[in-house]
Amino acid sequence: MTDLHVAIVGGGPVGCVAALAFARRGRRVLVLEANPNACKRLAGEWLHPPAVRVLKDLGVALPGGGRPWPTGEGFAVFPEDGTAPIVLPYVGGEAGLGLEHERLVKALRDAVAAHPEINFVPWARVTEVTDDRVAWRGRGGGAEQARVGRVIGADGRGSVVRASLDLPADTFTPSRMAGVLLRRATLPHEGFGHVFLGGAGPILAYRIGEDDVRLCIDVPRGIFDRGDRTGLLRDRYTAALPEGLRAAFHDALEANRVQWAANQVRPRLDYGTARRTLIGDAVGHYHPLTALGMSLGFIDAATLAEAPDFSAWRDARLRDARVPELLAVGLYDVFAEHTDLAAAMRQAVYRTWRTDPAECRRTMRYLACEDTRVGAFGWSFTSTLARAGVGVLWQTARRRGARPAARMTRDLGIRVSWIIAGALRLGSPANLPSTTAIGIRT
User: Fold this and answer.
1) Which of 88, 332, 270 minimizes the C-alpha distance to 194?
2) Which domains are delineated in the chain?
3) Against a cut of 0.85, is the pTM above it?
């Protein structure tokens, strides 16, 4: 039985970053990856600037360092009413990164393989995890084990390490994601991630290669199982795309360049223990519209390696991840819903972004995990709610009567109570409002 400082379960992006961060501190690291081919699935491809800084700090050589196309400059939001797009650049001149998931994983695994303190074991299916031991079976079925000072679960939504702690495994699935690969397509604002609204669900688009653009299309649960999915995508989302992308979109559908994944939600409430620690999606995850998953996971990993005390690290992550979490849920609720209140909130958000440069900068700092002040975010959120609510409540009462207006007032109250409870983390995790409480479709 081998003695090691750290065993990391999961050799995806977050697990590799954790391995490199701990190895840089002089730790002997074992990385156990059950399925190396999992990197070919539809998964995270956008990194916010802090995550790019983590990679640069670890010396990871990303492919296409001299790439001829711009990437990671911020986001451009295209309202459903056809008005001009709203461009939201990152603050401070730093850039994020859009890169095909498989290429990102390969770059990280190459860095892991080159490090003398890291042993990467592919096709290793973990069978048992305790505070000081991890056991696994290799591809040939042989049983192996190692004594370790700490086990880190970077093994995603179905985490074995999380299961070993008897933590809840339940998730909420508001929608499915169709990942469509466009060839030889040009985005309206090259270098930016694009959010197209006006379809059955929002579309996130970004460049992942010199000739390739990824569309991540949100498909609500209520229409996902209705017949031909290719026809569904064509019929319900074509009009939401700029004309310049529609031909490439139809070509991709005809060629079946489509991957599907479930959009699952689990609040980030429990990071495990000092001996069995969770990072990345093993902690929790949100709808990928705001592209937060890998960035939060990279920051988890980098800060954990530097932290002298688990409890202090856990408390800091609970605090610092709170604003990105609330923003992820809140923006999806605003962009995906088709109610009168959601439409009014979208218009309030558009007006704010068009007329208030300071609020645009704050939004991008929240999104990029740079500004983690819950009070500031709470003020931004509730003031937007107030601007949206006054007008729509008056119109609803005048056109439809008191009862619909009362229901809308209740919905506004739910959203306000959600932001307050989320900010304060009142009570136990079980008492936190779920995403269904603020209107995410079931």
Assistant:
1) 88
2) 2-63+99-170+267-319 (3.50.50.60), 173-264 (3.30.9.100), 337-438 (no CATH)
3) yes
